Amino acid sequence: MISSKNNMNPTPPRGWVNRREFLRISSGAAAAMLLSETSCDGEKASPLAKSSQNWVTIIPKMQRPNILWVSCEDISPDLGCYGDSYAVTPNIDRLAAQGVRYSKVYAHAGVCAPVRSGIITGMYPTTIGTHHMRCKGVPPAYVKCFSEYLRAAGYYCTNNAKTDYQFAPPMTAWDQSSRKAHWRNRAKGQPFFAVINLGVSHESRNWPKKGEKLVHDPAKAVVPPYYPDTPVVRKNLARYYDNVTKMDEQAGKILQQLEDDGLADNTIVWFWGDHGRGLPRGKRWIYDSGIHIPLVIRVPEKLRKLAMPKEPDAVKPGTVNDDLIAFIDFAPTMLSLAGVKIPKHIQGKAFIGSQKAKAREYIFAARDRMDEAYDLIRAVRDKRYKYIRNYMPYVTRGQNIEYMNRMPTMQEMRRLNAEGKLKGPQMQYFEETKPVEELYDTLNDPHEVRNLADEPRYRGVLERMRKVHAKWVKETDDIGLIPEPEFDEMKRPGGQWQKTAEPQFTPFIGGPAVAIACPTPGASITYRISGRSKTGWKLYAEPMLLKLDQVLHAKACRIGFKDSNEVKFKLGDSVTRAPEAETIPHWKEQLDKTDLLKRLRKIKDLDGLGKKAIPRYIEALNDKYGSVRYWAVVGLHNNCKSSSDIKRTKAALRKALKDPAAIVRIAAAHALCDWGQEKEALPVLAKALRDKTDKARLYAIIALNKIGEKARPALAQIRAGLKDKDNYVQRVTRATLKRLESR
């Protein structure tokens, strides 16, 4: 308790509270509290309250190791330490010799933003609504960046400098996030978690440069069977390996900095890549070429018992670990190493540290919208077999993505396909449709080019993996089947962003202590105190002591919301409680009250049934949910093959042209245009190009692109898409105009 001699205000101003009320507020409404012997400012403060909401729990008397992440972009395990003789990676090879090389680590997606969303939160993007590329998610209130838990535990957390989380990084996530961020900026003796991301191996670096000289000999490149073996492809592979070597050099310099600072013996080092090669059928895909990544962890000798309490030798130099590890396991593993209790909502499993979990049996992956191209694919993998479920089997793998098409190998593949010169596995990418299910024996078929799903002797494996997939989809509340325009309206009705409420101050009568709370569920608070030498913004985690000449500044944030206004407080100020802002019910809360996901799973169980499913699709056109009606229209479009089936379905789809859901109208118009009813259906697509929802406009321009020449009467409306505020709509518009105006 603070003694009476420290009481600066014998007559408390209006709004000050007694100790009992202070305890209630600071342990409940504040939500962001963890009290220790030392306040966030480093000044001694009595433990006035404890968090009743378990925002973060620190394991006491536990050593806090430094942790360094060296991450890189767009590489598979194409390193010397993984047995690749074409690679030149001496620094990472040396790191692997000093630590553990993990052989079976997999991303949950094949592209950076969904991947990083899962890494930073420890949750599947398909659960928290961050699965579509560049989607500006609004995760549930309990979701936080794991670095925030580390900061609350006393870590200095820096990120240099990529975020790409599918949401703006909250100001509470990092002490510093910039190209100048470095562990060297921390307070003396403070443990650190530092991320340094290397972008030299990014996909865009594999585009040709004028006058470039390659170090790797293209003639010695190993060409995967799904690529044509041509000079263009070999040169592209050599360029990729050159970039991996440059990345290795940069990694070596970072590791040398750690040595120069005398920190190597106190720092656990991770090296990892964010997903597979930035080349066709690698990046964006959930074949192993897109999700199998390198992970090397070096644990200094003095920290091995901390990393593996029961088996310290499991992380000794030169070890190879073949446990299945998923990217969403990174966050809980970091908390496990740092002595922070893993929150229950986190879906990943710690694979080292005091909270190490049982090894995985399966990893899971997802592909959703990639830039301007929609697809919906899920995968399950054990140590040997990969199961893939294609929820849009009618869509070719070879969809056009403007950014991806800049790659020389992609251009070469398209050229040779147009000329009819591809053969064998090279043709798979351009097949008009995909099978509903794929199954691969990755031991005997590491490139995943022989689909075993229809082979009787693998029926048992197929059924087992199918059940595991279905269970995962249900248990994780996979929302991928909700069409994006519908989901966008759920997460931000009317396209309006919510704003985090202003923080509120609660001073304590018995002394100059102040708590801060925010009425917005899930909000985090950052603060600074003017009148001190260090005025940077800090994460609020406990009440603090103020002096009379100091001003407390605070802001609040929540992932997916706009930040609050800055507010100020000094001792003696009266405190008034602002009325709580009206909060729109979160999409997850709304969804949990419905049976929408169950009904979506049910209608997608019809995939692969062909003509037998038509009556059930027609019945589903009257479903109460627009998302279900959408998939019913899509099912009819792709399963009505005979003239008689089309004839009996046309009337139902004409009715759907007036459906209240834009996605249903667009899907019905697309189908009717394909069936020769452009006169009444094309105006519906043209009108949808002006829809207030950007993803509805994207659906419409994609449909216009696919109907080809039939879209010509709407050319003027299509041209207007070049000025659309959505970049993806612009991209598909350019592709559509190129197709129509070249004739």
Descriptive report:
The chain is α/β, with parallel strands linked by helices and 743 residues long. The protein has 4 domains: 16-55 and 502-574, Immunoglobulin-like (Sandwich); 66-77 and 89-207 and 240-360, Alkaline Phosphatase, subunit A (3-Layer(aba) Sandwich); 367-489; 595-741, Leucine-rich Repeat Variant (Alpha Horseshoe), CATH 1.25.10.10. It contains 22 helices and 20 strands. The strands form 4 sheets. Strands 1, 2, 3, 4, 5, 6, 7, 8 and 9 form a 9-stranded mixed beta sheet that branches. Strands 10-11-12-13 form a 4-stranded antiparallel beta sheet, covered by helices on one side. It has a 4-stranded antiparallel beta sheet with strand order 17-16-19-20. Helix 14 (596-604) runs parallel beside helix 16, helix 15 packs antiparallel against helix 16 and helix 20 runs parallel beside helix 22 (727-741). The longest helix has 30 residues, at 231-260. The termini are far apart. The model is unreliable at 1-13 and 26-54 (pLDDT under 50).
Query: What is the global morphology?
Result: globular
Helix content: 25-40%
Count of alpha and pi helical runs: 22
Using the 3D structure, state the CATH architecture of the largest domain.
Answer: 3-Layer(aba) Sandwich
The value of Rg in angstroms is: 28 Å
The termini sit apart by 83 Å
Count of all domains: 4
Reported by name, the CATH topology of the largest domain is Alkaline Phosphatase, subunit A
Q: What's the overall average pLDDT, rounded?
A: 92
Quote the beta fraction. 5-15%
In total, the number of strands is 20
Helix and strand content put the structural class at alpha/beta
Oligomeric description of these chains: single chain
Largest sheet: 9 strands, mixed
CATH superfamily of the largest domain, called what?
A: Alkaline Phosphatase, subunit A
Catalogue the unreliable spans.
Answer: 1-13, 26-54
CATH class of the largest domain: Alpha Beta
